[in-house]
Amino acid sequence: MSELRKDPIIGRWVIISTERGKRPSEFVVPPPPTKGGSCPFCEGNESMTPPEIIAYREPGTQPNTPGWRIRVVPNKYPALKIEGSLGRVGEGVYDKMNGVGAHEVIVESPNHKDTLSTISTNRFEELLWAYRDRIIDLKKDTRLRYLLIFKNHGEAAGASLEHTHTQLIALPIIPKRVAEELDGSLEYFNYKERCVFCDIVRQEIMQGERVVAENQDFLAVSPYAPKSPFEVWILPKFHESNFENSQKHHYENLALLFSDVLKRMDKVLTFPPYNFILHTAPIKDSVSLQHYHWHFEIMPKLTKTAGFEWGSGFYINPTPPEEAATFLREAKI
Question: Considering 163, 165, 279, 295, which one is annotated as catalytic?
Answer without folding.
Answer: 165
